[in-house]
Specification:
The structure is a single chain. The protein has helices at about 1-35, 40-50, 55-70, 70-105, 120-140, 145-170, 185-190, 195-225, 230-245, 245-255, 260-275, 275-285, 290-315, 325-340, and strands at about 115, 320. The chain is built from 14 helices and two strands; from the N terminus they run H-H-H-H-E-H-H-H-H-H-H-H-H-H-E-H. It has a two-stranded antiparallel ribbon. It is globular. The chain starts with a helix and ends with a helix. The chain has a single domain (about 1-340), classed as NCX, central ion-binding region (A middle domain of Talin 1), CATH 1.20.1420. The chain is mostly helical.
Length: about 350
C-alpha cells in the first residue's frame, strides 16, 4: 500500500513541478522584457540560476547534514555523485529529450521546423566557459596539494562571476528581446505593480520548484531503498533526475513555442553554473576523488558536449537529430553501471 502511495505521490509532485516551471518561465520572460535584457541573458543567467537551485541545494544539504550527523563518508559520496550527475544529465538525456520534443512538436504542428533558430555565437561561448570550468574542476581531483585545489576553487568562482557580468553587459538593451509573450500569470489573478508582480511570481515559483524537487528526491530515496540501490547510483543517476526536471520542462515549454534561444541557453547556462559553483562546493567540502563510475560519467559528459559544440561551430543551423546523440551516451553509462552492479 505504501508503495502505491509513494508512486502516486511522485506523479503528483511531477505535475506540480511542471506547473511551477510554467509560472517561472512566464515570469522570467516578463522580467527580460521589463528590464530590456536579451534572450540569451534570460536563458543563460536568470532561468538557469533559478532552475539550478534544487540541484545546488540538495548536494550542499546532503554534505553538510552528513558531516554534522557524523556520517561524512556516505554524505560525501552522495554529494559528489549529485554534483557530477547534474552536468551529466544536462549534456546527455536533457539534450536527447530536447531533440525528441522538437520532433514531437513538429509532428503535432506546434513547430514549423526541426531546425533550431538560435544565436550560435552565444551558445558556443557558453560551451567554451563550460569546458574550461569543467576541466579545471575535474583536474583538481587529480591534485593532492591543498593550495592547488584552493586556486582551482577560486578560479571557478571568478570564472562564473566574469561569465555572469559579461552575459548581462552584452545583453542589456539588446535588440534580441522577445516581445511576443503571454500575459503574466499573477496579473490575471491580482492587480499588482508590474515589476512587483514579476518578482513575486519568480519567488513563489522558485519556492514551489525547490520544495517539490526536494520532496521528489525523498520519493526517489524511498524507491532506491525499496529496490536496494547503493548511494552512489542514487546520487549519480536517480537524484539528479528530480533536480534537473525544472531545466527539462522549461526547455520543452520554450521549444514548443519556438523560443529556441531561451530553451538552449537555459541548458548551456545551467551547464556553466554546474561546472563552477556546485563543483566549488565539492572541492571545498569533500575529498573530491572519483571512482571508475565517476570517471566514465565524466568521459560521457565531455564526448556528448564536444559533439554538440562542434555541430554549432561547423553549422549555421543545427537540426534536432544532433541532440538525439546525447541519449546514446546516457544509455552507455547506464549499461556500464548496471554491468558493474550485476
Amino acid at each position: 500500500m505504501q508503495v502505491c502511495f509513494e508512486f502516486f505521490g511522485a506523479f503528483f509532485l511531477l505535475a506540480l513541478i511542471v506547473f511551477a516551471c510554467s509560472l517561472f518561465t512566464n515570469a522570467v520572460e516578463h522580467f527580460g522584457l521589463e528590464f530590456k535584457f536579451g534572450k540569451n541573458a534570460i536563458g543563460s543567467i536568470f532561468a538557469a540560476l533559478g532552475t539550478t537551485a534544487p540541484e545546488t541545494i540538495v548536494p550542499l544539504v546532503a554534505i553538510i547534514g552528513g558531516i554534522l550527523a557524523g556520517d561524512e563518508s556516505v554524505a560525501c559520496e552522495i554529494g559528489v555523485g549529485a554534483i557530477l550527475g547534474s552536468p551529466f544529465l544536462l549534456s546527455t538525456i536533457t539534450f536527447f529529450f530536447m531533440g525528441v520534443g522538437i520532433y514531437i512538436f513538429k509532428w503535432a504542428k506546434a513547430r514549423k521546423s526541426i531546425i533550431l533558430e538560435v544565436n550560435n555565437r552565444y551558445i558556443i561561448r557558453d560551451f567554451k566557459f563550460f569546458f574550461v570550468n569543467y576541466f579545471v574542476a575535474i583536474g583538481a581531483s587529480f591534485v593532492k596539494f591543498p593550495l592547488v585545489k584552493f586556486l582551482a576553487l577560486l578560479f571557478l568562482i571568478i570564472s562564473y562571476v566574469y561569465y555572469f557580468v559579461q552575459t548581462l553587459s552584452s545583453a542589456k538593451n539588446s535588440d534580441d528581446i522577445d516581445t511576443e509573450i503571454e500575459e503574466l500569470a499573477l496579473a490575471k489573478i491580482c492587480k499588482f505593480n508590474k515589476r512587483a508582480a514579476i518578482f513575486i511570481q519568480v519567488i513563489l515559483s522558485l519556492i514551489l520548484l525547490i520544495l517539490c524537487a526536494h520532496l521528489f528526491v525523498l520519493k526517489i530515496k524511498f524507491f532506491a531503498d525499496f529496490l536496494h540501490i547503493q548511494p552512489l547510483i542514487l546520487s549519480l543517476i536517480i537524484m539528479p533526475i528530480a533536480t534537473e526536471l525544472p531545466e527539462n520542462v522549461n526547455s520543452l515549454l520554450w521549444l514548443k513555442h519556438e523560443k529556441d534561444t531561451f530553451a538552449l541557453s537555459n541548458i548551456t547556462g545551467a551547464m556553466v553554473f554546474q561546472s563552477a559553483i556546485p563543483m566549488s562546493i565539492g572541492i571545498l567540502f569533500t575529498p573530491w576523488v572519483f571512482d571508475v563510475n565517476g570517471l566514465v560519467n565524466i568521459v560521457c559528459v565531455i564526448l556528448s558536449s564536444v559533439i554538440l559544440y562542434f555541430a554549432f561551430v561547423c553549422k549555421k543551423q543545427v537540426s534536432a537529430k544532433m541532440f538525439l546523440l546525447g541519449g546514446l551516451f546516457y544509455l552507455a553509462f547506464i549499461v556500464f553501471v548496471l554491468r558493474n552492479i550485476f
